[in-house]
Specification:
Chain B: Keywords: Membrane, Transmembrane, Transmembrane helix. Chain A: Keywords: Membrane, Transmembrane, Transmembrane helix. Chain A: It comes from Candidatus Sulfomarinibacter kjeldsenii. The structure holds 2 protein chains of 2 kinds. By secondary structure, chain A is mostly helical. Chain A is built from 8 helices and no strands. Chain B is built from 2 helices and no strands. Chain B is elongated, with a radius of gyration of 13 Å. In chain B, helix 1 packs antiparallel against helix 2. The chains are: A mainly alpha, B mainly alpha. Chains A and B meet through helix 5 and helix 8 of A and helix 1 of B.
Chain lengths: 160, 55
């Protein structure tokens, strides 16, 4: 076999990724996605995107801390309010930050025993910054969830 | 508490996030950051100004 033939038979990395996509084998691992959700920036860090990981972690952390300092409430489900589930979903997107805040407010026993309707989300509705704080908390969680989707895209080879 | 500063801080965080999410080059990130940041801040100020006549 000549050198030219062996070169033409070698697959480029992009072709290999394309082949895997066709076969449906190229998936992001569940542990990577869960880690990326729980620890903002973790997924990008594991995939070698360290700068992006640092920026995402810093942005999510800053937004969450701002929300808490503005007396925002970490969303928890309430029986009479269907929209509270959406708020809870958005806030849970913060991963360890939201879980940590709920443990801080309810205690570990209260978190387990009070799930889902007996949880306290903190915050103070009478505070001037309550609505702003909630906005920061929701935004931080949703940004982290978008970062998880980004990790999935990168791991599947859909994006650099 | 300054509401304008809070709005600018929020716009800054969101703009930085999307610049890094959607662009991979430094120039692309800078351009997208400036575009989204200015749209959010100037747009919010303009909407606030337009809402002045309404109760």
């Amino acid at each position: 076999m000549t050198a030219k033939e062996s070169k033409s038979q070698k697959k480029r990395p992009a072709d290999a990724v394309k082949d895997q996509k066709v076969e449906g084998k190229n998936r992001a691992s569940i542990s990577l996605l869960l880690g990326s959700w729980f620890l903002p920036g973790f997924g990008h860090w594991r995939l070698g995107k360290k700068r992006r990981a640092g920026v995402f972690a810093a942005v999510v952390f800053c937004a969450f801390v701002t929300g808490v300092f503005l007396h925002g409430e970490v969303g928890t489900p309430k029986p009479a309010s269907p929209f509270s589930w959406l708020a809870a979903f958005a806030c849970l997107g913060n991963g360890i930050l939201a879980v940590g805040r709920l443990v801080w407010l309810n205690g570990l026993g209260g978190l387990v025993g009070g799930f889902p309707f007996g949880l306290q989300g903190g915050g103070s509705p009478s505070a001037a910054g309550f609505a702003y704080g909630n906005t920061f908390l929701y935004t931080a969680g949703l940004m982290n969830l978008l970062a998880v989707l980004d990790v999935s895209d990168i791991a599947r080879g859909e994006k650099d | 508490m300054d509401h304008l500063l809070l709005m600018i801080w929020h716009a800054l965080l969101v703009s930085v996030f999307f610049a890094f999410l959607w662009r991979s080059t430094s120039v692309g990130r800078r351009n997208l950051f400036l575009k989204t940041f200015l749209i959010m801040v100037v747009g919010a100020a303009a909407l606030g100004w337009l809402m002045f006549p309404f109760p």
